[in-house]
Amino acid sequence: MSKDTLSITDNRTGVTYEIPVESGTIRAMDLRAIKTSEKDFGLMSYDPGYMNTASCKSRITFTDGDKGILRYRGYPIEQLASKSTFLEVAYLLYFGKLPSAEEAIRWDHGIRYHTMIHEGIKQFLNGFRYDAHPMGILVSTVAALATFYPESKKVFDAETRRIQFFRLVAKMPTLAAFAYRHRMGMPYIYPENTLSYAENFLNMTFHGSEPTALRPPDFEHDPVLARALDTLFVLHADHEQNCSTSSIRMVGSAQTDPYTAVSAAGAALYGPLHGGANEAVLRMLREVGSVEKVPAYVKQVKAGEKKLFGFGHRVYKSYDPRARIIKKCADQVFEVMGRNGLIDIATELERIALEDDYFIQRKLYPNVDFYSGLIYEAIGFPAEMFPVLFAIPRTPGWYSQWQEHLTDPEQKLARPRQIYLGEEARDVPAPELPELVK
Ligand code: SDX
What we know:
The structure is a single chain. About 50% of the residues lie in helices and about 5% in strands. The protein starts with a strand and ends in a 32-residue tail after the last helix. Strand 4 and strand 5 form a beta hairpin. The chain has 17 helices and 5 strands. The relative contact order is 0.12. It has a 3-stranded antiparallel sheet. The protein has a two-stranded antiparallel sheet with strand order 1-2. The chain folds into 3 domains: about 40 residues, no CATH class; about 200 residues, Citrate Synthase, domain 1 (Orthogonal Bundle), CATH 1.10.580.10; about 100 residues, CATH 1.10.230.10. By secondary structure, it is mostly helical. The chain binds s-citryldethia Coenzyme A.
């Protein structure tokens, strides 16, 4: 009769160990029993990039990289993207269920009335250079919020966590829009509580004094743009243990307040291999320059000279289910805002890559970032805002994962080990006496 255990024989000693298997994993601490002598520290596992390490148990998001599956609390992303709003999804991630009609009204009202930020935050914003990257501003100002809500340090108080959840989900768009307005040298537009979450963000970002003739009528409240942005927010809301979510869990294990922990997650997301990828995609498409030049660029990628940003994924070794949905969003936005040449370059890049052995063998497919930047740019956002547009919707995901980690009785302060390859013990040499000047 098969048993849920591994029998490991240590050939250094001939001893065999029986190690339990649970949920397709072994506990790394069980390896420590494998020693060559009583003085031996015992075995550890070594896993650069945590390619094969489960850091936690979670009930929030499930992905299957081979089948291209993504579910939030069991609901397929395709259904949530077409049937739910971002705020309903944020509620789902945190509370574990979709809100009832009455809960949705209370939740939406609560968010709308938490969108204002303390006037003191504007002092921070005004301290940044005029051309400061908006993600650098966002990561800094969200951390500063912790100083305005010191009670947020009571991380084990459920009601305090719930209030900070409202504040963070509500205030991230305001901080993001203010960061953009600072960069543009334009006056801040305050939240408008009569608008939906996406409409309010578009209004705070783009509402201006320029003649409306310069932009489509009622631009900030265009239902197609607002719905496309809301759908993009749904798609970006969570994604299990990605780099930024693992970062907030790591920082949260020290019982840091949620604002500072979200700032740490934003710092990880800022990197071009993670949330900074859609900004890198736009720069890549501009570098390619035309459909005719795509083959030459692909050749450079295959030679290892360039990276195809927006392609590849640690988990998805088939099409990222979000990329497929985003591509549909792109067509809707381009109908309203007009189509630019970059989408044709992107489509040609995708066509070639999906046929080329280099990409097929490495299981490289478009990921969530490949098309999202094109939509954001078509709406009017500059590339520097793209990681910010990732951080806004990922906030409920980060926060829900942070809370789950904090309330998991199995978790403790994160403190990995290492393989030391440095110098052995040695003495500090006696100081060399300066040669006497003759
Ligand atoms: C996000 O984890 C998440 O969930 C993240 C995210 C989320 O929602 O939170 O989904 C969001 O971060 C999406 C990923 C956005 N990043 C990019 O688009 C940047 C470009 N992609 C790559 O840098 C890369 O694909 C990663 C970092 C995303 C994943 O890389 P892995 O899993 O570490 O794979 P690897 O780097 O070991 O690559 C395997 C092979 C290598 O070739 P060989 O050395 O075997 O010859 O594939 C090659 C790589 O060189 N490769 C690429 C490539 N990605 C991998 N070659 C060219 N272009 C690429 N984009």
